[in-house]
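Schema walk-through. Below, the input block comes first and the output block second. Nothing else is stored per chain. Lengths vary across the set, and this one has 189 residues.
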Amino acid sequence: MPKLWNKTIDAHRREVRDAILDTTAALVAEHGPRSVTMSQIAEETGIGRATLYKYFSDVEAMLVAWHERQVSGHLEHLAELREQAGDAGDRLEAVLEAYALIHHEHHGTELAALLHRGEHVARAQQQLSALIRDLLTEAAETGDVRDDIAPKELASYCLHALTAASSLPSRAAVRRLVTVILAGLRPRA
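--- output ---
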């Protein structure tokens, strides 16, 4: 087969897969994760059920794939923030605030409880921990962050403290949480 044909087929498959995932997410947001059927998804996506089953075995598999895509996008966003111009302390603050806001907006739901059991979440947590650890190491070298505690421990502290963002009432409260966390990271006087 010519390369152009293969690329076209691959692009089409990605588009169909993305449409399935987007439709599934919209239906789950509207009806709840336990109320959506394969027939509904096929009808809303505009494809046959047989085609749908070629992509996914059930609704839960679609939700896991959708979540993997979301998590990957969040990690990419945080990595972009890490690479911004500015000093290490500013970049650390940007990453912590962005992660806290993600946690605030996307956790604490039935869907989150269902999807946060997968292996992809454990991998993402490791990547996130390494990203924050590296920023903390850099910030400690510039004197923006305390250096009397290992960056790995500080990263764990940050990630655990940021889980509180899911229960906060507003974005302003999330920002205050990040301010408190950053105060705990400052070098001792």
